[in-house]
Amino acid sequence: MRLVHVTDTFLPKVGGAEIAIDQLIRAMTQSGDECALLAQRPQGMKTEIQTPYRLMRFANPRSSLWAGWWIKRHLRTLLEQIGTPDALIAHHAFPPGYACVKAARKLGIPCLVYPRGGDIYEVSRFRKKKHAWRKLNWALQHASAVICASAAMEELVRGILGEDGKSQRIVRIPNGVNIEELRQDALDCRLAMDANLSGPFVLALGRTIRRKGFHFLIDAWAALPSSEWKLVIAGNGRDLPTLKQMAGPLGNRVQFTGRVSGADKRWLLQHCQFMAAPSLEESFGNVALEAMACGKPVIASRASGFAEIVTDGENGLLVEIGNVSALAGALSGMMEMDRTALCAAAARTATQFAWPIIAQRYRDVIAEFRGA
């Protein structure tokens, strides 16, 4: 198939959505699909990244009022160069979804729209902009299919569409995980030489923003007795200074690595004892899959997608959102128990989400619309 993906957030900006989009397109390309990506250029990007698929950039639209038109204009330029694809896949309902559905209807091809959370959450900035929210709703209503990573996301989409959503095709397709890459050797990375990480540690990985719940994790860690164990928070974001201030009284019991990628990220995932992911809200929960790919169980909140990956007592533990006491109890229990069975179950879980499997599910949906 010839497929064109469109996104308003992409690498080298690092986040769950950006990594997932890249990994999906790589998996499709490796399976023989001819893929191209139209992606927004992050502010401050100085050099282009290398991809095994065609990548075209567009500048940040100055206003959401014209964002859909702006992306559609650049999409038209890309299609003039490569020809009409078999389908368009929009990552985020607005503005990419709106632009892609408009273009697909004119071309007579299917368009899949994948709302990734930030565009439709209750805190979405588009909910406060009537013109943007109206176009976002229109994109969800008129897409060939809406892709949702979790039951929680599907519920949110159906809530937005209301009566208009009863006839809409909504397909559940989770994100995937690159198991082979995450299991590659990482012993030559800088973190492997860090004396502060020589003992057992619990890993929290992700952007240091309030939605990730790391402030709950620090409070829970403070409630535990001092030991040789450390809490490692890997990531960067606007709340990092606040988190460091919170962790100050705990001394070296809490370590901050900043943003990690490549071998550093793999080393943390491979050498942590388990992961803690106490998010308030998650559309899916990519970090849980990454930990499980390395055979590590996960303590997660019952937030959205996490509850569809983590099975309580089987491959990890689930706690109520924002319950610091329950989180502290789960941490203590996980530290003390024999985790052998949990680790094995976590690794088995990850195999079900290998990217080639996930990519084929997209291909099957598109094939239905093409009558293949």
What is the chain-wise order of helices and strands? EHEEHEHEHEHEHEHEHEHEHEHEHHH
**Could you state the CATH homologous superfamily of the largest domain?**
Glycogen Phosphorylase B
List low-pLDDT spans: none
| Assembly state (oligomeric) | single chain
**Overall CATH architecture of the largest domain:** 3-Layer(aba) Sandwich
Largest sheet: 7 strands, parallel
The CATH topology assignment of the largest domain is Rossmann fold
| CATH classification, class level of the largest domain | Alpha Beta
The total of beta strands comes to: 13
Number of helices: 14
N-C termini distance:
11 Å
Radius of gyration over all CA atoms, rounded: 21 Å
Which percent range describes the beta-strand content?
A: 15-25%
Total separate domains: 2
Mean pLDDT: 95
Care to give the gist of this entry?
The chain has 372 residues and is α/β, with parallel strands linked by helices. The chain is 41% helix and 16% strand.
General description of the model:
The protein is of the alpha/beta class. It has helices at 16-30, 67-82, 93-107, 130-142, 151-161, 179-182, 214-222, 240-247, 262-271, 286-293, 306-309, 324-336, 340-351, 355-370; strands spanning 2-7, 34-40, 54-58, 87-91, 111-114, 145-148, 170-172, 201-205, 230-234, 254-258, 274-277, 298-301, 316-319. It folds into 2 domains: 2-176 and 354-370, Glycogen Phosphorylase B (Rossmann fold, 3-Layer(aba) Sandwich), CATH 3.40.50; 179-351, Glycogen Phosphorylase B (Rossmann fold), CATH 3.40.50.2000. It has 14 helices and 13 strands. It has a 7-stranded parallel beta sheet, sandwiched between helices. A 6-stranded parallel beta sheet has the order 10-9-8-11-12-13, with helices on both faces. The model has no long low-confidence stretch (mean pLDDT 95).
